Protein backbone atom coordinates (compact mmCIF):
# COMPACT_ATOMS: atom_id res chain seq x y z
CA UNK A 1 0.00 0.00 0.00
CA UNK A 2 2.84 2.35 0.86
CA UNK A 3 4.55 1.65 -2.46
CA UNK A 4 1.32 2.67 -4.23
CA UNK A 5 0.70 5.80 -2.17
CA UNK A 6 4.25 7.19 -2.19
CA UNK A 7 4.38 8.18 -5.89
CA UNK A 8 1.05 9.99 -5.45
CA UNK A 9 1.32 11.51 -1.97
CA UNK A 10 5.03 11.29 -1.02
CA UNK A 11 7.16 14.30 -0.21
CA UNK A 12 8.56 14.56 -3.73
CA UNK A 13 5.06 14.34 -5.25
CA UNK A 14 3.77 17.02 -2.88
CA UNK A 15 6.63 19.39 -3.72
CA UNK A 16 6.04 18.89 -7.44
CA UNK A 17 2.35 19.56 -6.86
CA UNK A 18 3.30 22.86 -5.21
CA UNK A 19 5.45 23.63 -8.25
CA UNK A 20 2.46 23.08 -10.51
CA UNK A 21 0.25 25.27 -8.32
CA UNK A 22 2.85 28.03 -8.65
CA UNK A 23 2.67 27.62 -12.41
CA UNK A 24 -1.10 28.00 -12.24
CA UNK A 25 -0.72 31.15 -10.15
CA UNK A 26 1.73 32.57 -12.68
CA UNK A 27 -0.72 31.77 -15.47
CA UNK A 28 -3.58 33.77 -13.94
CA UNK A 29 -2.50 37.26 -15.15
CA UNK A 30 -2.14 35.96 -18.70
CA UNK A 31 -5.57 34.29 -18.48
CA UNK A 32 -7.09 37.59 -17.33
CA UNK A 33 -5.54 39.38 -20.31
CA UNK A 34 -6.96 36.67 -22.56
CA UNK A 35 -10.36 37.10 -20.93
CA UNK A 36 -10.27 40.82 -21.73
CA UNK A 37 -9.52 40.03 -25.36
CA UNK A 38 -12.32 37.46 -25.72
CA UNK A 39 -14.76 39.47 -23.60
CA UNK A 40 -16.60 41.04 -26.55
CA UNK A 41 -17.54 37.53 -27.70
CA UNK A 42 -19.18 36.65 -24.40
CA UNK A 43 -22.92 36.74 -23.94
CA UNK A 44 -24.78 37.71 -20.81
CA UNK A 45 -23.35 34.73 -18.94
CA UNK A 46 -19.82 36.20 -18.93
CA UNK A 47 -16.42 34.79 -19.81
CA UNK A 48 -15.81 32.82 -16.62
CA UNK A 49 -19.09 30.93 -16.79
CA UNK A 50 -18.44 29.59 -20.30
CA UNK A 51 -15.97 26.72 -20.62
CA UNK A 52 -15.12 27.43 -24.30
CA UNK A 53 -14.40 31.08 -23.48
CA UNK A 54 -12.28 30.06 -20.51
CA UNK A 55 -10.25 27.75 -22.72
CA UNK A 56 -9.93 30.51 -25.29
CA UNK A 57 -8.65 32.92 -22.63
CA UNK A 58 -6.18 30.28 -21.51
CA UNK A 59 -5.03 29.67 -25.08
CA UNK A 60 -4.47 33.38 -25.70
CA UNK A 61 -2.56 33.80 -22.45
CA UNK A 62 0.04 31.11 -23.13
CA UNK A 63 1.67 32.88 -26.13
CA UNK A 64 1.84 36.02 -24.02
CA UNK A 65 3.63 34.01 -21.34
CA UNK A 66 6.12 32.78 -23.93
CA UNK A 67 6.93 36.38 -24.87
CA UNK A 68 7.46 37.49 -21.28
CA UNK A 69 9.76 34.52 -20.66
CA UNK A 70 12.46 36.48 -22.52
CA UNK A 71 12.94 38.49 -19.31
CA UNK A 72 16.54 37.69 -18.19
CA UNK A 73 15.59 36.47 -14.71
CA UNK A 74 13.09 33.89 -15.98
CA UNK A 75 15.56 31.05 -16.43
CA UNK A 76 17.44 31.57 -13.13
CA UNK A 77 14.17 31.74 -11.16
CA UNK A 78 12.67 28.73 -12.92
CA UNK A 79 15.89 26.75 -12.45
CA UNK A 80 15.88 27.51 -8.73
CA UNK A 81 12.24 26.43 -8.42
CA UNK A 82 12.90 23.20 -10.34
CA UNK A 83 15.96 22.45 -8.24
CA UNK A 84 14.15 22.83 -4.92
CA UNK A 85 10.66 21.56 -5.78
CA UNK A 86 11.16 19.04 -8.58
CA UNK A 87 14.31 17.41 -7.24
CA UNK A 88 16.48 17.98 -10.33
CA UNK A 89 20.24 18.11 -9.72
CA UNK A 90 21.72 21.59 -9.88
CA UNK A 91 24.50 20.58 -12.28
CA UNK A 92 21.88 19.66 -14.90
CA UNK A 93 20.37 23.16 -14.87
CA UNK A 94 21.67 26.50 -16.09
CA UNK A 95 21.83 29.26 -13.49
CA UNK A 96 22.43 32.29 -15.67
CA UNK A 97 20.09 34.16 -18.00
CA UNK A 98 19.40 32.74 -21.45
CA UNK A 99 21.88 34.34 -23.85
CA UNK A 100 21.40 32.75 -27.25
CA UNK A 101 18.47 32.09 -29.55
CA UNK A 102 18.44 28.42 -28.66
CA UNK A 103 18.54 29.10 -24.93
CA UNK A 104 15.78 31.69 -25.17
CA UNK A 105 13.62 29.34 -27.24
CA UNK A 106 14.07 26.54 -24.71
CA UNK A 107 13.26 28.88 -21.83
CA UNK A 108 10.09 30.05 -23.60
CA UNK A 109 9.04 26.43 -24.23
CA UNK A 110 9.65 25.51 -20.59
CA UNK A 111 7.81 28.54 -19.21
CA UNK A 112 4.83 27.89 -21.47
CA UNK A 113 4.76 24.20 -20.52
CA UNK A 114 5.03 25.00 -16.82
CA UNK A 115 2.19 27.49 -16.94
CA UNK A 116 0.00 25.27 -19.13
CA UNK A 117 0.31 22.16 -16.95
CA UNK A 118 0.24 24.28 -13.82
CA UNK A 119 -2.96 26.03 -14.91
CA UNK A 120 -4.68 22.71 -15.66
CA UNK A 121 -3.60 21.05 -12.41
CA UNK A 122 -4.40 24.18 -10.37
CA UNK A 123 -7.88 24.35 -11.88
CA UNK A 124 -8.44 20.67 -11.13
CA UNK A 125 -7.15 21.19 -7.59
CA UNK A 126 -9.73 23.91 -7.04
CA UNK A 127 -12.70 22.08 -8.60
CA UNK A 128 -12.30 18.37 -7.84
CA UNK A 129 -11.82 18.26 -4.03
CA UNK A 130 -15.14 20.04 -3.20
CA UNK A 131 -17.01 17.89 -5.74
CA UNK A 132 -15.36 14.72 -4.38
CA UNK A 133 -16.25 15.71 -0.82
CA UNK A 134 -19.92 16.11 -1.78
CA UNK A 135 -19.94 12.69 -3.44
CA UNK A 136 -18.34 11.02 -0.43
CA UNK A 137 -20.85 12.38 2.11
CA UNK A 138 -23.84 12.35 -0.23
CA UNK A 139 -25.33 9.03 1.03
CA UNK A 140 -25.05 10.26 4.61
CA UNK A 141 -26.57 13.74 4.21
CA UNK A 142 -30.05 13.67 2.79
CA UNK A 143 -30.21 17.45 2.58
CA UNK A 144 -27.55 17.46 -0.13
CA UNK A 145 -29.72 15.33 -2.39
CA UNK A 146 -32.60 17.75 -2.04
CA UNK A 147 -30.52 20.91 -2.53
CA UNK A 148 -29.95 22.61 -5.82
CA UNK A 149 -26.30 21.74 -6.35
CA UNK A 150 -26.67 20.72 -9.95
CA UNK A 151 -25.91 17.06 -9.25
CA UNK A 152 -26.54 14.57 -12.07
CA UNK A 153 -29.98 13.01 -12.12
CA UNK A 154 -28.44 9.56 -12.12
CA UNK A 155 -27.67 10.05 -8.46
CA UNK A 156 -31.40 9.75 -7.75
CA UNK A 157 -31.01 6.00 -8.19
CA UNK A 158 -30.09 4.03 -5.11
CA UNK A 159 -27.29 2.08 -6.80
CA UNK A 160 -25.67 5.33 -8.05
CA UNK A 161 -26.03 6.87 -4.62
CA UNK A 162 -24.22 3.90 -3.10
CA UNK A 163 -21.35 4.28 -5.58
CA UNK A 164 -21.04 8.04 -5.05
CA UNK A 165 -18.35 7.75 -2.31
CA UNK A 166 -16.34 5.43 -4.52
CA UNK A 167 -16.55 7.94 -7.35
CA UNK A 168 -15.48 10.72 -4.97
CA UNK A 169 -12.42 8.81 -3.78
CA UNK A 170 -11.60 7.82 -7.38
CA UNK A 171 -11.74 11.44 -8.50
CA UNK A 172 -9.29 12.44 -5.74
CA UNK A 173 -6.95 9.63 -6.76
CA UNK A 174 -7.25 10.73 -10.37
CA UNK A 175 -6.34 14.28 -9.35
CA UNK A 176 -3.30 13.02 -7.45
CA UNK A 177 -2.31 10.86 -10.40
CA UNK A 178 -2.59 13.75 -12.84
CA UNK A 179 -0.55 16.01 -10.56
CA UNK A 180 2.12 13.34 -10.07
CA UNK A 181 2.30 12.61 -13.79
CA UNK A 182 2.51 16.29 -14.72
CA UNK A 183 5.19 16.87 -12.07
CA UNK A 184 7.22 13.91 -13.29
CA UNK A 185 6.90 15.17 -16.87
CA UNK A 186 8.21 18.61 -15.89
CA UNK A 187 11.08 17.08 -13.92
CA UNK A 188 12.01 14.96 -16.93
CA UNK A 189 11.91 17.85 -19.39
CA UNK A 190 13.62 20.40 -17.13
CA UNK A 191 17.24 19.42 -17.94
CA UNK A 192 16.51 19.52 -21.68
CA UNK A 193 14.77 22.92 -21.59
CA UNK A 194 16.50 24.62 -18.64
CA UNK A 195 19.84 22.87 -18.91
CA UNK A 196 22.97 24.53 -20.28
CA UNK A 197 23.18 24.93 -24.04
CA UNK A 198 26.46 24.48 -25.96
CA UNK A 199 26.94 28.25 -25.71
CA UNK A 200 26.47 28.08 -21.93
CA UNK A 201 28.96 25.22 -21.65
CA UNK A 202 31.48 27.15 -23.75
CA UNK A 203 31.07 30.24 -21.58
CA UNK A 204 31.46 28.13 -18.43
CA UNK A 205 34.56 26.46 -19.87
CA UNK A 206 36.06 29.86 -20.70
CA UNK A 207 35.32 31.08 -17.19
CA UNK A 208 36.94 27.98 -15.69
CA UNK A 209 39.95 28.41 -17.98
CA UNK A 210 40.33 32.03 -16.92
CA UNK A 211 40.07 31.07 -13.26
CA UNK A 212 42.59 28.27 -13.77
CA UNK A 213 44.95 30.69 -15.49
CA UNK A 214 44.76 33.01 -12.48
CA UNK A 215 45.38 30.11 -10.09
CA UNK A 216 48.31 28.81 -12.15
CA UNK A 217 49.91 32.23 -12.31
CA UNK A 218 49.54 32.76 -8.56
CA UNK A 219 50.92 29.26 -7.94
CA UNK A 220 53.95 30.06 -10.11
CA UNK A 221 54.52 33.35 -8.31
CA UNK A 222 54.31 31.69 -4.90
CA UNK A 223 56.57 28.81 -5.93
CA UNK A 224 59.20 31.00 -7.52
CA UNK A 225 59.35 33.65 -4.81
CA UNK A 226 58.75 31.64 -1.63
CA UNK A 227 60.49 28.47 -2.85
CA UNK A 228 63.61 30.34 -3.89
CA UNK A 229 63.64 32.34 -0.67
CA UNK A 230 63.36 29.25 1.53
CA UNK A 231 66.16 27.50 -0.34
CA UNK A 232 68.41 30.56 -0.16
CA UNK A 233 67.70 31.22 3.51
CA UNK A 234 68.34 27.58 4.40
CA UNK A 235 71.72 27.56 2.71
CA UNK A 236 72.65 31.01 4.04
CA UNK A 237 71.88 29.96 7.59
CA UNK A 238 73.77 26.66 7.14
CA UNK A 239 76.83 28.40 5.71
CA UNK A 240 76.79 31.02 8.50
CA UNK A 241 76.55 28.32 11.17
CA UNK A 242 79.59 26.47 9.84
CA UNK A 243 81.86 29.55 9.83
CA UNK A 244 80.34 31.24 12.86
CA UNK A 245 83.62 31.31 14.80
CA UNK A 246 86.11 31.65 11.96
CA UNK A 247 84.60 34.26 9.60
CA UNK A 248 82.36 36.79 11.40
CA UNK A 249 82.26 39.03 8.33
CA UNK A 250 80.75 36.26 6.20
CA UNK A 251 78.22 35.55 8.97
CA UNK A 252 77.16 39.21 9.00
CA UNK A 253 76.73 39.15 5.22
CA UNK A 254 74.72 35.93 5.40
CA UNK A 255 72.43 37.30 8.12
CA UNK A 256 71.93 40.52 6.16
CA UNK A 257 71.07 38.46 3.08
CA UNK A 258 68.60 36.40 5.12
CA UNK A 259 66.95 39.60 6.38
CA UNK A 260 66.71 41.10 2.90
CA UNK A 261 65.45 37.84 1.36
CA UNK A 262 62.71 37.32 3.93
CA UNK A 263 61.62 40.97 3.79
CA UNK A 264 61.27 40.91 0.00
CA UNK A 265 59.52 37.55 0.07
CA UNK A 266 57.01 38.68 2.68
CA UNK A 267 56.22 41.68 0.49
CA UNK A 268 55.69 39.49 -2.58
CA UNK A 269 53.61 37.05 -0.54
CA UNK A 270 51.39 39.89 0.70
CA UNK A 271 50.94 41.07 -2.89
CA UNK A 272 49.91 37.61 -4.12
CA UNK A 273 47.56 37.07 -1.19
CA UNK A 274 46.07 40.49 -1.92
CA UNK A 275 45.23 39.27 -5.41
CA UNK A 276 43.52 36.22 -3.91
CA UNK A 277 41.54 38.33 -1.45
CA UNK A 278 40.48 41.06 -3.88
CA UNK A 279 39.91 38.85 -6.94
CA UNK A 280 42.06 41.05 -9.18
CA UNK A 281 43.07 40.01 -12.67
CA UNK A 282 46.26 37.98 -13.13
CA UNK A 283 49.41 40.03 -13.32
CA UNK A 284 48.23 42.84 -11.02
CA UNK A 285 50.54 41.73 -8.22
CA UNK A 286 53.81 43.68 -8.39
CA UNK A 287 56.75 41.47 -9.37
CA UNK A 288 60.47 42.24 -9.56
CA UNK A 289 62.24 42.55 -12.91
CA UNK A 290 65.79 42.09 -14.12
CA UNK A 291 66.19 45.85 -14.27
CA UNK A 292 65.03 46.26 -10.67
CA UNK A 293 66.69 43.45 -8.78
CA UNK A 294 69.14 41.31 -10.81
CA UNK A 295 72.10 42.58 -8.79
CA UNK A 296 70.27 42.01 -5.53
CA UNK A 297 69.26 38.48 -6.57
CA UNK A 298 72.87 37.63 -7.39
CA UNK A 299 74.09 39.13 -4.11
CA UNK A 300 71.62 37.16 -2.00
CA UNK A 301 72.43 33.96 -3.87
CA UNK A 302 76.19 34.43 -3.35
CA UNK A 303 75.57 34.96 0.35
CA UNK A 304 74.59 31.27 0.50
CA UNK A 305 78.18 30.28 -0.26
CA UNK A 306 77.52 29.75 -3.97
CA UNK A 307 79.91 31.16 -6.54
CA UNK A 308 77.82 32.81 -9.25
CA UNK A 309 79.46 34.06 -12.41
CA UNK A 310 77.06 36.36 -14.22
CA UNK A 311 77.62 37.23 -17.87
CA UNK A 312 75.00 39.82 -18.82
CA UNK A 313 75.35 40.79 -22.47
CA UNK A 314 72.40 43.19 -22.63
CA UNK A 315 71.13 46.10 -20.59
CA UNK A 316 68.22 44.88 -18.41
CA UNK A 317 66.69 48.37 -18.58
CA UNK A 318 66.24 47.98 -22.35
CA UNK A 319 64.07 44.88 -22.05
CA UNK A 320 60.27 45.15 -22.30
CA UNK A 321 58.65 45.11 -18.82
CA UNK A 322 56.79 41.82 -19.33
CA UNK A 323 59.89 40.09 -20.67
CA UNK A 324 62.04 41.52 -17.88
CA UNK A 325 59.60 40.32 -15.22
CA UNK A 326 59.29 36.78 -16.57
CA UNK A 327 63.04 36.57 -17.19
CA UNK A 328 63.66 37.55 -13.56
CA UNK A 329 61.48 34.68 -12.34
CA UNK A 330 63.25 32.28 -14.72
CA UNK A 331 66.68 33.37 -13.48
CA UNK A 332 65.46 33.15 -9.89
CA UNK A 333 64.16 29.63 -10.39
CA UNK A 334 67.32 28.55 -12.24
CA UNK A 335 69.51 29.76 -9.39
CA UNK A 336 67.10 28.22 -6.88
CA UNK A 337 67.39 24.84 -8.60
CA UNK A 338 71.17 25.08 -8.36
CA UNK A 339 70.90 25.82 -4.64
CA UNK A 340 68.44 23.02 -3.98
CA UNK A 341 69.94 20.23 -6.04
CA UNK A 342 73.65 20.86 -6.62
CA UNK A 343 74.58 21.57 -3.00
CA UNK A 344 76.48 24.25 -1.15
CA UNK A 345 79.65 25.78 -2.52
CA UNK A 346 78.87 25.02 -6.15
CA UNK A 347 79.95 27.21 -9.04
CA UNK A 348 77.01 28.50 -11.07
CA UNK A 349 77.28 30.33 -14.37
CA UNK A 350 74.49 32.65 -15.47
CA UNK A 351 74.43 34.02 -19.01
CA UNK A 352 71.84 36.57 -20.16
CA UNK A 353 72.13 37.90 -23.73
CA UNK A 354 70.11 38.88 -26.78
CA UNK A 355 70.76 36.83 -29.92
CA UNK A 356 68.77 36.66 -33.16
CA UNK A 357 65.86 38.64 -31.73
CA UNK A 358 65.59 36.39 -28.66
CA UNK A 359 66.52 36.86 -25.04
CA UNK A 360 68.57 33.80 -24.07
CA UNK A 361 69.00 32.76 -20.44
CA UNK A 362 71.45 29.95 -19.58
CA UNK A 363 72.11 28.64 -16.08
CA UNK A 364 74.83 26.00 -15.69
CA UNK A 365 75.91 24.19 -12.53
CA UNK A 366 77.67 20.90 -11.68
CA UNK A 367 75.43 17.90 -12.13
CA UNK A 368 76.40 16.30 -8.79
CA UNK A 369 78.02 17.45 -5.60
CA UNK A 370 81.77 16.98 -5.41
CA UNK A 371 83.29 14.59 -2.84
CA UNK A 372 83.10 16.06 0.63
CA UNK A 373 80.48 18.64 -0.40
CA UNK A 374 77.22 18.35 1.43
CA UNK A 375 74.33 18.28 -1.06
CA UNK A 376 71.54 20.75 -0.70
CA UNK A 377 68.00 19.88 0.32
CA UNK A 378 66.02 18.03 -2.32
CA UNK A 379 62.30 18.52 -1.76
CA UNK A 380 59.96 17.02 -4.31
CA UNK A 381 60.97 18.71 -7.53
CA UNK A 382 59.51 19.21 -10.94
CA UNK A 383 57.30 22.23 -10.25
CA UNK A 384 60.07 24.73 -10.91
CA UNK A 385 60.90 23.50 -14.39
CA UNK A 386 57.19 23.21 -15.14
CA UNK A 387 56.71 26.83 -14.10
CA UNK A 388 59.63 27.94 -16.28
CA UNK A 389 58.09 26.05 -19.20
CA UNK A 390 54.72 27.73 -18.60
CA UNK A 391 56.29 31.18 -18.55
CA UNK A 392 58.27 30.51 -21.72
CA UNK A 393 55.26 29.14 -23.60
CA UNK A 394 53.14 32.15 -22.66
CA UNK A 395 55.74 34.35 -24.36
CA UNK A 396 56.18 32.04 -27.35
CA UNK A 397 59.59 30.81 -26.19
CA UNK A 398 61.21 27.46 -25.58
CA UNK A 399 63.00 25.66 -22.73
CA UNK A 400 65.69 23.00 -22.72
CA UNK A 401 66.94 21.49 -19.47
CA UNK A 402 69.14 18.49 -18.85
CA UNK A 403 72.67 17.17 -18.37
CA UNK A 404 75.38 18.41 -20.72
CA UNK A 405 78.94 17.06 -20.32
CA UNK A 406 78.77 16.61 -16.56
CA UNK A 407 76.80 19.80 -15.91
CA UNK A 408 73.14 20.61 -15.55
CA UNK A 409 72.13 23.24 -18.06
CA UNK A 410 68.94 25.26 -18.28
CA UNK A 411 68.54 27.15 -21.54
CA UNK A 412 65.55 29.42 -22.22
CA UNK A 413 64.83 31.42 -25.39
CA UNK A 414 62.22 34.19 -25.24
CA UNK A 415 61.29 36.20 -28.36
CA UNK A 416 61.73 39.92 -27.98
CA UNK A 417 59.06 40.83 -30.54
CA UNK A 418 56.26 38.84 -28.90
CA UNK A 419 57.04 40.28 -25.49
CA UNK A 420 56.64 43.85 -26.72
UniProtKB/TrEMBL annotation:
For this protein, the parts annotated as crossing the membrane are 20-41, 53-73, 109-142, 162-187
Q: What is the organism field in this record?
A: Streptomyces viridosporus T7A
The Signal transduction histidine kinase subgroup 3 dimerisation and phosphoacceptor domain is annotated at 215-279
EC numbers on record = 2.7.13.3
Region annotation (Disordered) ranges: 368-389
- Name the Pfam families on file: HisKA_3
Which EC class is the enzyme in?
transferase
Q: What is this protein called?
A: histidine kinase
Keywords carried by this UniProt record: ATP-binding, Kinase, Membrane, Nucleotide-binding, Phosphoprotein, Transferase, Transmembrane, Transmembrane helix, Two-component regulatory system
What is this enzyme's catalytic activity, as reactions?
ATP + protein L-histidine = ADP + protein N-phospho-L-histidine
Q: Does the keyword Transmembrane helix apply?
A: yes
Molecular function, one GO term? kinase activity
